[in-house]
Amino acid sequence: MSTAGAMIIGIDQGTTGTLGILMDLDGAVHARRYLAHEQHHPKPGWVEHDAGEIASHVENIAQELAARTTSMGRAVAGIGLANQGETVVAWNRATSEPVGHAIVWQDTRTQSWIDEIATDDELSAYVAQTTGLHLDSYFSAGKMRWVLQHVPKTRELAEKDELCLGTLDAWLRWRLTAGRSFVTDASTAARTQLMSLDHLDYDERLLELFGVPRSCLAPIVDCGHRSEARGMGADLDGVPIAASLVDQPAAMFGHGCLRSGQTKATYGTGCFVYQNAGASPPRAAEGLLSTIAWTREPQRVHALDGGVIAVGSLMTWLEQHAGILGDARRIDDLLASHEPNPDVICVTAHAGLGSPIWDRRARGAWLGMDLATGRPDLIHSVLEGIAFRVSQVIDAMESASGATLESLRADGGLVHCRTLMQLQADLLQKPIEVIEEPEATALGIAAFAARSLDLWGDDERVTSRVHVAETFTPQWASDRRARRVATLQGAQNHVRAWGAR
């Protein structure tokens, strides 16, 4: 196919919705489309999505963008898919119908069982050494075990070899190819807690531990593996799905963090910090994760990963549940003339504490309130609590790698909150570089597809189109930062002690 006028569709299938962009080979975005999907919370700690709704949204967005391309007299050269990562979907191989809802990465229904097996130190060490991951309900394997034990018909379908059990990348590729392709990319498979980092294949001991039959799982392929779209209409049929990554590695690619040591943070539903670790798999330090960023045969790129579980979801909580934030987009206006009360602290453990703490029993709390405490105090303390958690992850990464981070690249919806970005710079004592394109995941997966299709001849085409829109520099002195970190750490310790009572 001629590359003249070729366009790439980049799909970022995220926790709260799906974003699609239409990118040309100069890296310019010509169109974007977003559709939110419903969040289901049938019980406390349970988070579910309708996998059929998500697939329909992805299909509709791709079709709309393809039609836009045709109207411009151009053609779609390829599709890139980024996905949520650890979210689990089961479906009937014969009918392509989902069996029950998807269980989302945030879901904690399996945590009690995970805590039980984690008391076996030898087993915990084996899981960490094999997969690079900490035993936690965050990852897919425990969810897959739960599906097979509790969702009607799944065990029966599995015994008949009629069950597909996978992550959203496998499900979306299945739908976009009309059931012709059942594969999972290496970066997503690395998030299941079933894959060996060394061998890029499922580990038999872990399959047995979690009770997951290999026959239900999608084969693991290169992140640039190609499948042809089918049943998507004349504008898309035959177009290669040429790239698949977890959303965070896709964002890291979109940031142009292609050299070892470069680090990005995406402030979305959670905040996920990824550091490019190069070709050799790092053995993650205490509290950090080691994972596959991407594979481009014959090369692998590894990453250190640290996730703060509740970030953007805290803004939703402040708006919809606590009722103290009218519009998250107006936070800076609300706090413009506010003098922060240093006694008011928020420990942002509303979904437990992820990396580098890994205390899922901890819960969020406000401390230090009095009768003069108002909405601005509470909101500012939440932003500071988020920034503190991210700084804990960065501190752990510096300790693990032995390298000092010069700056942090940032993207995601919350980078528009200047108050948060300045707090982040102050608590890190490092510049925060907010990139011009806030949705780096969609642009990153489109760029990865362009490279996979050899439409871009080298990675300079990726890095050259990344521009910093604004840099936030630290305004606190280092001694002030040290005192504040000690105070915030003390509050976190207090809340953890309460959760462990």
What does this structure look like?
The chain has 16 helices and 23 strands. Strands 17-18-16-15-21-22-23 form a 7-stranded mixed sheet. A 6-stranded mixed sheet has the order 3-2-1-5-14-13, sandwiched between helices. A two-stranded antiparallel sheet has the order 4-7. Strand 1 and strand 2 form a beta hairpin. Helix 9 packs across helix 14 and helix 12 crosses helix 13. The radius of gyration is 22 Å and the shape is globular. The mean pLDDT is 94.
Features:
single chain; 501 residues; alpha+beta; seven-stranded mixed β-sheet; six-stranded mixed β-sheet; 35% helix; globular
Low-confidence stretches: none
Strand order of the largest sheet: 17-18-16-15-21-22-23
Number of strands: 23
Instruction: Give the proportion of residues in helices.
Output: 25-40%
Strand content: 15-25%
Silhouette = globular
Structural class: alpha+beta
Distance between the termini: 65 Å
- Helix tally equals 16
Describe the main β-sheet briefly: 7 strands, mixed
Radius of gyration: 22 Å
Mean pLDDT: 94
